[in-house]
Amino acid sequence: MTPQEFNTLDKMLGNNPMEKLSRQAAASIDNAKQQQINMPGMPTSYTPFLQTPVAEQSFLLAVDGQQYGPFTVQQIRQFLADGSITRETLAWRSGMPNWTPLNQLNGIV
């Protein structure tokens, strides 16, 4: 069997290494979104987004490849003010389809 035939057979059988890697990466990202890392002094529970005003919402933040939170908008603004995070820091809360830079979220920055 030629290498090209072997690759075609692998793809047909779902053994494509790139597809496997993509599935693994997607699963890893999904797992990361579900994990919660609490910093000292932070609340231990996270209330899902329920159409509350921005000032009352909590967000998770991605900093240096790690997920932290949840944080209130007031806490996020303080982190921005003291330089702990930037306007490009990614944030997410329940109900959002993707992690989004803070500067693209209305009412935070």
What does this structure look like?
The chain is of the alpha+beta class and 109 residues long. It has two domains: 1-34; 37-109, 2-Layer Sandwich (Dna Ligase, domain 1), CATH 3.30.1490.40. Helix content is 34%, strand content 17%. A four-stranded antiparallel sheet has the order 2-1-3-4. A hairpin with a 2-residue loop joins strand 1 and strand 2 (66-72). The chain starts with a helix and ends in an 8-residue tail after the last strand. The model is unreliable at 39-50 (pLDDT under 50).
How are the SSEs ordered, and which strands pair?
Layout: H1 3-12, H2 17-34, E1 58-63, E2 66-72, H3 73-81, E3 90-92, E4 100-101
Antiparallel strand pairs: 1-2, 1-3, 3-4
Stretches with pLDDT under 50, minimum 5 residues: 39-50
Arithmetic mean of pLDDT:
74
* C-alpha end-to-end distance: 59 Å
In which range does the helix fraction lie? Answer: 25-40%
Radius of gyration computed on alpha carbons: 19 Å
H/E element order: HHEEHEE
CATH architecture of the largest domain: 2-Layer Sandwich
Strand order of the largest sheet: 2-1-3-4
Question: Helix/strand/pairing class, anyone?
Answer: alpha+beta
